[in-house]
Amino acid sequence: MAIKSSVAGHSPHAEYRRESSKRRAQGWREETVSRAVFDWLHTDLNPAVQSIRAARSQEAVIELYNVYNQSVPLGVRTSVDAGAIRRSLVSAAKDDELCAAGSLAVLGWIKSDAASKLARPAASWMLSGWSSAVYLGAERQAGAEAAQALEQEGDMDLRSLAARLGASPRTLQRQIAEEGLTVTELRRSCRQTVALRLMQAGGNSLGQIASLAGFADQAHMARGFKASCGLTPGQIAKLIAV
Q1: Taking the model in full, what pTM does it have?
Q2: Dihedral over Cα of 202, 214, 12, 134: its sign
Q3: Known SUPFAM superfamilies for this protein (predicted)?
Q4: Hey, what CATH topology would domain 129-240 get?
């Protein structure tokens, strides 16, 4: 799910409302939503979340959060201005208390993540497909092993990746499909992870980052990031460098 989330794009607000109704019927309350959000963010690889992890200053984190909320189609937009949290109706008839609790939980996680960075080296701030798999106890799955190879050694086509892992292309494709993924999704997620690391490290242009991460070109990278999180590589690189 962490890898799927990293490339799936933003879910429509109507879907959030449906899920909220289901959870409410199951007895969920605001504190239940908060715990679920924190659990989800422990492994989420979406570039929007990863860029918040990578940002070096509280100001950049808040700016990324606000830019993200302005860049994707939301029914209710949440923004932070001078420490005040505001929720504005866009296409929703009214706010939903469980959806609101989810947004507030994300902001709580952002504050917690920012505080924890002080004791950790910058290279450890972002997650990877491999580290998420280890956290979930899924490091022996084919998708986890493939993610580790792609993140450490660079992008590969299916045939090369299968050879690297000692499997036939068909077997690897089947194993990854059984885990709910496709090889295309896995490669795209890993390219984004590598690109984000390079943005955080600095020293390369966006064109160089696109090439090093395995994208066809800078435009290919931009389309991928925009589809995944509503943000462009330029927006992310500018803010995580602050």
Answers
A1: 0.91
A2: negative
A3: Homeodomain-like (SSF46689)
A4: Arc Repressor Mutant, subunit A (1.10.10)
Tens digit of each residue's pLDDT (9 = 90 or more) over 131-184? 999 999 999 999 999 999 999 999 999 999 999 999 999 999 999 999 999 999
Contact status, residue 224 vs residue 215, Cβ threshold 8 Å: yes
Rounded Cα–Cα distance for residues 195 and 197 (Å): 5
Q: Where are the domains of the chain?
A: 2-124, 129-240
Average pLDDT over residues 87-108: 87
Please name which of 240, 182, 242, 241 lies closest in space to residue 50, comparing C-alpha atoms.
240
- Buried b or exposed e, range 46-64, using 16+ CB within 10 angstroms: bbbbbbbbbbbeeebbbbb
Q: How many residues does the chain have?
A: 242
